[in-house]
Amino acid sequence: MSFKHQPPTVHEHGVKGYDTRDVHGKSLAFYFIALTVITIASAIVALVSWKVWENQPSSGAVAVLPTAEDRTLPALPRLQPLPQLDIKALHASEKDRLTKYRWIDKTAQIVQIPIDRAIDVVAEKHLPHGAEAHEPGKGMIAPAQPAAAPAPAAPAL
Fold first, then answer.
1. Fewer CB within 10 A of the terminal residue: the chain, N end or C end?
2. Contact criterion met (CB below 8 Å) for 128 and 140
3. 4: pLDDT strictly greater than 90
4. Confidence bin at 82 (pLDDT 50/70/90)
């Protein structure tokens, strides 16, 4: 391709105009047409290849992974059909356990009380709580010590 040299346009303020040699409509149109033809040809070749491969007879052998035979499935059910309902039911049961009274063992007279009441009982009776409640002998309320006998007074001189 040969380009004709055109002198740049000079405006009245001395600003030169755009260069008309940069873009050629015929070259640009040829490029887009070629790109379109190549894209369509590639799609046709891929489609024909796929159909030929699909219609070939298979050997009938299916590859089985060696670990597939030894795999055991988990117990049923394997999926949660409605996990949102399951989590709501879990939260409801947790709230029920934390806010209501219930017997743990009637024969031993062990009762579960609501957590808010349990916190109040711990605070009122100054029972050990936190980390010290889990260490043997720490945080325990010391039993009342009998008052020691007063020391005899020194004789007056």
1. C
2. yes
3. no
4. confident
Q: Would you state the pLDDT for residue 145?
A: 53
Instruction: Tell me what pLDDT residue 49 has.
Output: 93
Q: Which residues contact 138 (CB under 8 A, 6 or more apart)?
A: 128, 132
The reported pLDDT for the residue numbered 142 is 53
Would you call 97 helix, strand, or coil by DSSP? Answer: helix
Q: Judge whether 16 and 9 are in contact, CB under 8 Å.
A: yes
Contacts of 4 (CB under 8 A, 6+ apart): 21
Name the amino acid, one letter, at 111: V
For residues 112 and 107, what is the distance between their CA atoms, to the nearest angstrom?
A: 14
Q: Name 102's bridge partners.
A: 112
Angle, helices 83-99 vs 115-125, to 10°: value is: 30
Asked if omega into 77 is within 30° of 0 (cis), the reply is yes
Structure tokens at 90: 């879990």
Confidence check: pLDDT of 1 > 60: no
